[in-house]
Specification:
heterodimer; A: alpha+beta; PH-domain like; 3-stranded mixed sheet; 12 helices; B: alpha+beta; globular
């Protein structure tokens, strides 16, 4: 059977109306050239190069190992069917399948992309990020924390005397930490404290002034040590970074509105993750207090102080911390179950020394 | 023997025949494969998408072909990543030492190399794309000289910096002129006759009128820009000049962008393939070949089998568009 094709000899752009008689071992291409001479060319089907892309109702092939290459194009439905049925290496069965029922394929592909996106974002990225943060060597974690510490230039606002007394207090507590703990008191009006990867804790003086008992201070220290021990900062950064890259790669090239939407969704998701880390730190902090036989009620009391000083208790879904109201509730619940509380004179003395120093 | 001449004397026109649903399948399939392969499939995806656009573009009942392979583009990316790993490695090493002299040197070298690399990337990209593009079996070819282009670029870039960007229009036109004058399609050559002054005026009018018209002038600006590029481009066949023309109007641009915008916003970006097809279709719909181009008499010239895709990949890496 002969099929209609357009043949190009590779020497000029002349279109030759040609016919192809094809079988599995030979394609015979016949046409009449510009001098009215009949021309016959043979193609070995095994050496034909396909276009590697699907376009409806059109096939094109090139031929030849050396330049100039010959080419044929055809819109002959019979020829297209012949190629699809008889020359498997010249067509892609996946493409044929996908283009058979176009809208159905589009829906399937979209579902596939959503599925992959969902699994990657909610499972793969968090697992990899946490794995990365956990497997980083101790030395690298300390290096990273030191780098952030230098950037924050806390040292310029340092209260050296209070820092020394607070360090004594922490050293007296029984804390088994992977990292050497180093605490600093920085002069600031802000009611805050934070921990950096690798063992550094910074407590702002105004918070220290508001704290009334050694138990409340131990609760604060326990909470911050938990961030350090569980590498929360690294986990948070790794997850945030991974998620942000994922969102920008998937949606960055599409349009501004979608990107903003997805970035905000990512931000809210990230806040929820940070909240879960905060809760973990509260619980772990209580463990440290229990190890030191200190009254666990110090923790909810600390939150009461913070609550009193904070004008609005931000709804948790908009904040990186759980609502203080909730934190008070769940820490009281745990504190109620405490079995043993012992006096600790040494810590009492250290606590007094801190109070005098600020 | 004019009576039996088979020379095509009718006006040739370019058409884009791609279809949204067809392209969507190719586009979405490639997103899935790229995601599943953690990005490694990207070169093959990029090539298939370009192949689709080429094969959907028709002139005189024949389609264009793109002959690049994913493997070539992949190799290009590997080279870029090796270069950047070394560059970043050096940068981070310098930052870690906290030695100020070394840090300043590393940062300077890093940015200097980024600037110096661009002309080489453009040259490589044009040469690779040309060598891999054909129509009716006739290949494109870029004959530009890398060193010559590099100095042209450096001169333009320096003058643009010194004039706080004003020279940018002339710089841009000079590069375009150089590239087009060294571009061949078989035995046809190209010309770009625009001048920097005209482009500068187009841009200046945009800067002034954009705010005065609350952005509405953008549609006229886009039309003027396309006209400037298209109307100043021509082909030369056997000493005769064949011009390109576009009769696009600002209203057409508004319709294109407005509907594209609606499609993207209301589908959260899913309509991207349809938007791409609409845009290409739009561009070619207004593109005319104004003059007698004998589409049957283009002679094949020598072949530049340039398989190094690093320049093309580099532009992709920097998100610079070739056109």
């Amino acid at each position: 059977m002969a099929f209609k094709v357009h043949f190009f000899d590779g020497k000029t752009s002349r279109t030759h109306e040609a016919s192809v008689s094809a079988n599995s071992v030979n394609w015979k291409i016949c046409y009449v050239d510009e001098n009215a001479m009949p021309i016959e060319i043979s193609w070995n089907p095994q050496k034909i190069k396909k276009a590697d892309v699907y376009t409806e109702g059109l096939v094109s092939f090139t031929y030849g190992d050396t330049f100039p290459f010959q080419k044929l194009e055809s819109t002959d439905e019979q020829f297209i069917n012949y190629v699809n049925n008889s020359h498997q290496h010249l067509r892609s069965s996946i493409d044929l399948l996908l283009h058979k029922s176009k809208w159905r394929s589009i829906v399937f592909l979209l579902i596939g992309i959503l599925g992959i996106g969902f699994v990657s974002y909610f499972y793969v990225i968090p697992t990899v990020a946490t794995g990365f943060a956990t497997s980083l060597s101790q030395e690298n974690v300390i290096d990273f924390g030191d780098h952030v510490f230098n950037v924050l230039s806390v040292e310029s606002k340092m209260n050296e005397n209070a820092s020394k007394e607070l360090q004594d207090f922490v050293d007296e507590m029984e804390i088994s930490s992977e990292f050497p703990l180093k605490v600093y008191v920085a002069e600031s009006e802000e009611l805050n404290a934070f921990a950096l990867s690798g063992g550094k804790i910074v407590v702002f003086s105004s918070l220290l002034k508001k704290i009334e008992t050694k138990e409340q201070l131990a609760a604060l220290i326990g909470h911050e040590v938990s961030h350090i021990e569980n590498r929360h900062m690294l986990k948070n950064i790794a997850r945030n970074f991974g998620g942000a890259i994922f969102v920008s790669v998937l949606f960055g090239d599409i349009n501004g509105a979608t990107t903003v939407l997805m970035e905000n969704a990512h931000l809210l998701g990230q806040l929820s993750f940070t909240r879960s880390l905060e809760k973990e730190a509260d619980i772990f902090g209580l463990d440290i207090m229990r190890d030191n036989n200190l009254n666990l009620h110090g923790m909810p009391e600390l939150f009461e102080i913070l609550k009193k000083e904070t004008a609005v208790d931000v709804p948790s879904y908009l904040s990186n911390h759980p609502m203080l109201k909730d934190r008070i509730e769940y820490t009281i619940e745990i504190a109620e179950q405490q079995e043993m509380i012992l006096e600790n004179r040494v810590l009492d003395l250290k606590w007094k020394a801190i109070k005098e120093a600020i | 023997m004019d009576l039996i001449s088979v020379k095509s004397r009718t006006k040739a026109s370019l058409k884009y025949l791609g279809e949204g649903t067809e392209f969507a399948i190719i586009y979405l399939k490639n997103i899935i494969l790229t995601l599943l392969s953690l990005g490694l499939y990207y070169p093959w995806a990029k090539v298939e998408i370009l192949k689709y656009h080429y094969q959907s573009t028709e002139l005189d009942q024949a389609r264009f072909s793109f002959h690049a392979t994913g493997k070539e583009v992949f190799k290009g990316f590997i080279k870029i990543y090796v270069i950047f790993i070394f560059l970043y490695g050096f940068l981070f090493y310098a930052l870690r030492t906290q030695n100020q002299v070394l840090t300043v040197a590393a940062v300077s070298i890093f940015y200097l190399l980024l600037i110096l690399i661009v002309p080489f990337a453009i040259h490589g990209a044009v040469r690779y794309r040309s060598s891999r593009s054909s129509w009716k079996g006739i290949h494109f070819k870029y004959l530009g000289d890398r060193t010559e282009f590099f100095w042209l670029y450096m001169k333009g870039a320096l003058l643009t910096i010194c004039t706080l960007g004003i020279y940018g229009a002339w710089f841009h036109v000079d590069m375009r002129k150089y590239i087009f004058s060294h571009l061949r399609f078989g035995n046809l050559s190209f010309n770009f006759k625009g001048n920097g002054g005209d482009l500068f005026v187009i841009n200046l009018k945009f800067v002034i009128l954009f705010y005065l018209t609350l952005g509405i002038y953008s549609f006229w600006y886009y039309r003027n820009l396309v006209r400037f590029y298209v109307d100043n481009t021509s082909l030369v066949q056997n000493g005769k000049e064949v011009k390109f023309k576009t009769n696009m109007q600002a209203g057409d641009v508004f319709e294109l962008l407005f509907i594209n915008g609606l499609l993207l916003v209301f589908t959260l970006g899913i309509a991207m393939p349809w938007v791409t097809v609409r845009t290409l279709n739009f561009f070619f719909r207004f593109l005319e070949i104004d003059g007698e181009l004998n589409t049957n008499a283009i002679q094949q010239a020598s072949y530049d089998n340039y398989d190094d895709a690093i320049g093309d990949d580099m532009l992709d890496f920097f998100d610079i568009d070739l056109l």
